């Protein structure tokens, strides 16, 4: 069976991607630094569940460690590389920009260098809806200019897109850059709204509702995201020979490089999202209405036409269903709601 290298394998999305590939019989090398951005025991629990699923090789290490990725690529010669490891989070980047520089910019550089030496069949990297910046009209389309990033997190992710494009062009590396939209579901991140809101509602403490609730997000359920990733793994971009890109495609005119939104394409108001949590928990939220947070945007919305045309697939889990599955997981994982994730 082929080998996949998945970075960020103890993270929320990485864990689910590894589980999917192991269930299909892939050999999976899972690299993660187990950073303490949030509860490390949750990361360990995710990794621990992967080993019994198949041929899983966990690797502890940082992507930006000089030579670390080069040695790993040389040893394993992965067929496919899915680079998800990153310092995520918009708000944390305001006070801690250096960790984004190191993990996201230098880390991606080390991945690209290793891929240059030992090219995988397909290199896939995670970017974000935040890369669209301040001036993009709705819904976000991959061919939009996407300037004026609002946070340093977004700036590092947008930079990695440019870096990956140049490597794809210069060294012929088939590369897909995902733009993910607010992913949620079981085993989700303690720093994200669904986790924080569920925890607070179950504990009877107030939730912080930014922009006085006037926000919307294109919430994407984790199983739908993994399906999109899995199908895109087989949609390997090729360099267009004549430089002409088919209409609606974000394929580069000079490189085997493509940007693809992986999003639900159905934005949901924050107020409706909170109501879905109330319904799933059977409890009322105490809302603490707050102003807009720096670095944030009021709305996101994925144009999912390119994902559909490349894979025939569109994410479709309704938000109330996805939220109910998260709440069910949360209650079973934290039975007495005793968790106190160490968040920064
Ligand atoms: P996560 O924080 O749960 O997972 C990231 C994992 O990477 C963590 O386990 C962490 O320990 C590891 N990591 C961080 N820095 C590292 C480093 N320098 N070296 C090695 N490992 C390191 O986040 P996630 O939600 O699973 O996100 C995965 C990817 O998707 C990230 O690139 C993120 O920016 C992107 N993304 C996520 C969302 C979302 O809604 N979850 C939205 C848009 C983009």
Structure explained in plain terms:
The strands form four sheets. Strands 3-2-1-4-5-6-11 form a seven-stranded parallel sheet, with helices on both faces. A two-stranded parallel ribbon has the order 7-10. A two-stranded parallel ribbon has the order 8-13. The chain is α/β, with parallel strands linked by helices. Helices cover 39% and strands 15% of the residues. Residues 338-344 have low confidence and may be disordered. Helix 6 (152-171) links the parallel strand 5 (122-128) and strand 6. It has a single domain (3-183, 220-263, 301-316), classed as 3-Layer(aba) Sandwich (Rossmann fold), CATH 3.40.50.720. Helix 7 crosses helix 9 (270-281) and helix 7 (193-203) crosses helix 11. The chain is globular and about 55 Å long. It has helices spanning 12-23, 40-50, 68-76, 92-95, 97-117, 152-171, 193-203, 222-233, 270-281, 305-311, 319-333; strands at residues 3-7, 27-32, 56-60, 80-83, 122-128, 175-180, 183-184, 207-209, 216-217, 220-221, 257-262, 268-269, 287-289. It is built from eleven helices and 13 strands. Nicotinamide-adenine-dinucleotide (NAD) binds at residues 8, 10-14, 32-35, 43, 62-64, 84-88, 103, 107, 126, 128, 180, 182-183, 189.
Features:
344 residues, alpha/beta, Rossmann fold, seven-stranded parallel sheet, two-stranded parallel sheet, 11 helices, 39% helix, binds nicotinamide-adenine-dinucleotide
| Radius of gyration from CA coordinates | 19 Å
Largest sheet, described in full? 7 strands, parallel
Find the structural class using helix and strand composition. Answer: alpha/beta
Number of domains: 1
Instruction: Indicate the CATH architecture.
Output: 3-Layer(aba) Sandwich
Bound molecules: nicotinamide-adenine-dinucleotide
- What's the tally of helices? 11
Give the N-terminus to C-terminus distance in angstroms: 40 Å
Unreliable spans are 338-344
Which strand order spans the largest sheet, edge to edge or round the barrel? 3-2-1-4-5-6-11
Mean of the pLDDT scores? 96
Which range does the strand content fall in?
15-25%
Using the alpha-carbon principal axes, give the shape.
Answer: globular
DSSP strand tally: 13
CATH topology: Rossmann fold
Provide the CATH top-level class: Alpha Beta
Spell the H/E element sequence.
EHEHEHEHHEHEEHEEEHEEHEHH
């Amino acid at each position: 069976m082929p080998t996949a290298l998945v970075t960020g394998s103890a993270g929320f999305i990485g864990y689910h991607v590894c589980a999917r590939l192991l269930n299909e019989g892939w050999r999976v090398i899972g690299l993660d630094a187990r950073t303490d951005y949030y509860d490390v025991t949750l990361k360990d629990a995710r990794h621990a569940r992967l080993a019994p699923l198949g041929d899983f090789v966990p690797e502890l290490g940082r992507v930006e460690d000089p030579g670390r990725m080069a040695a790993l690529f040389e040893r394993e010669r992965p067929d496919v590389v899915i680079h998800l490891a990153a310092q995520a989070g918009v708000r944390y980047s305001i006070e801690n920009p250096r960790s984004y520089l190191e993990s996201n910019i230098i880390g991606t550089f080390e991945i690209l260098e290793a891929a240059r030496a030992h090219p995988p069949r397909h290199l896939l990297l995670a970017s974000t809806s935040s890369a669209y910046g301040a001036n993009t009209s709705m819904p976000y389309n991959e061919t939009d200019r996407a300037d004026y990033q609002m946070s340093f997190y977004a700036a590092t992710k947008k930079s990695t897109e440019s870096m990956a494009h140049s490597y794809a062009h210069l060294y012929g590396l088939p590369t897909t850059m995902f733009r993910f939209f607010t992913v949620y579901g079981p085993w989700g991140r303690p720093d994200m709204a669904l986790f924080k809101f569920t925890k607070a509602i179950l504990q009877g403490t107030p939730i912080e509702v930014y922009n006085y609730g006037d926000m919307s997000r294109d919430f994407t359920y984790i199983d739908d995201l993994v399906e999109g990733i899995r199908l895109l793994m087989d949609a390997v971009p090729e360099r267009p020979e004549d430089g002409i890109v088919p209409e609606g495609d974000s394929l580069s005119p000079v490189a085997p490089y493509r940007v693809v939104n992986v999003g639900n394409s159905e934005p949901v108001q924050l107020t409706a999202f909170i109501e879905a949590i109330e319904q799933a928990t059977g409890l009322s939220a105490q809302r603490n209405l707050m102003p807009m947070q720096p670095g944030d945007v009021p709305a996101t919305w994925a144009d999912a036409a390119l994902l559909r045309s490349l894979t025939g697939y569109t994410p479709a889990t309704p938000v109330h269903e996805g939220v109910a599955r998260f709440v069910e997981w949360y209650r079973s994982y934290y039975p007495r709601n005793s968790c106190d994730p160490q968040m920064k």
